[in-house]
Structure formats: C-alpha cells, structure tokens
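Input chain follows. Return structure tokens only.
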Amino acid sequence: WPRLGLAVVGVFGVASVVFSFVVTYMYDMFTGPANNIDLFLKSPSLMDAKFSEYFLGLYIHPCGRYHVYAIGIFLAYFLYNRKKNTDRVVKGRYNKILFYVGAILAAIFSSLCVFGLNFFGQSLRTTLFASFYNALHHLLFSLSFAWFVYHCATGKLGFFNRMLSARILVPLSRLSYSAYLLHPILMEAYFLSLRAPFQYSHLSLVILNFGFVFVTYMIAFVVTILFGAPFINLERYFRQTQRKIQ
C-alpha cells in the first residue's frame, strides 16, 4: 500500500507540473508581476490584465502547486523509513560525493528560481520560456529545500541544524502556519485601503515588509491561541490515551 500511495502522489505531482506548463502556454501568461516591471512602466493596463490572468488562472490554483506538497510527502516518508532502518544507511566516500554534488545543485537551482529571471533579457521571455519557468521553478526550489531539510534532519548540516533548532524559534514555528494563511489577507487589506498612489522606494518597502511581518505574527498569535492550541491539546490527549491503552 505505501508504494501504491507514493505512486499516486507521484502521478498527481507530475500532472501538477504539466498543468502549470499547459495553462501558461495556452493563455500566454507571463512569469509574474515582480519580474515584469518594464511591462508595468510601458502599459499599466496591460500589466493589470496580465497579472489578473496569471493570478486567477495559475497562481491561486492548488493543482498548480501540488507537486510541492508531493515532494514534502516523499521527503517525510523517506526520513521515516530511514529512521526505522538506520542500519541500511550506506556511509563512506560515495555519500560525501553525493552530498557535495547535491549541495552544488541545490544552490544552483534555488538561486536560479529566485534570481534567474534577472539574467535573461526581455527578448528571451517568450511564452515557451514562461511555460517552462512556471512549471519548474516551484519544483526545483522545493527539491533544493528538501535537500537542505533532509541533511539537517540527518545531522550533516550541524551549524544550520543547531541554528534552526534553537529554542527561541520554537514559538515562531508554532505561529508560522497561521502567519502563512493570514499574511495575504493583511497585505490585500492594506493596499486596498490606500486612497493615493504609493511611492515605492527601497526604504519604504523594507519598513513596510517589517511592519507586515510584525502585525501578521501578532494576529497569528491570537489565532493560534484561539483555534490552534485547543486542537493541539486535543491531539495530545488522544495520543496519551492511545498509549495508555496499548
């Protein structure tokens, strides 16, 4: 059954990548607003239309992001099996080579996903290019992040593992999912409340984003206390009850 489940997850993951490619190609979408500022400067109305098409047609669709969750499922299953079968882990030179090759590839892929579009001129940003980018950039970034998480979990990235496992980050980690759900609502509410054009600058964006982070986590704290904590305590209660029965 686990193999069947993983196969189903993999098939849907591939379908998710194909979906992103096909939708982008069929509707001639771009790679996102942040990477097409020149289009906004030339034609704000066209930029608005392209952004609406991209946001509603691809960005918010779960089926266009399922492959990211699939990678998380595969990683969790692999780590679980590795913990059960530690005696089967092969150590030695091969693992070191694989580690360094993986580190280089993860650094390249994650950097290309975030900064890659800055290296391509507007002439190269064709519909076909946008289709490949929209289909693959979440996949490659997730694979790079999965490599990082795996090696933290297995103790091969000692410094990063200790830093990310610091007790001071535990409260923030419990608020992170609520913050993830709440931050777009807060940002949209703010920008829709503006009654005059916003003057963008590096300083204003830095201050604005720090404000978003602070207010988001304050609201996330309240939401977690009201809704998240009761369910966590309920889960603990059922687990303890199950252990007593066993």
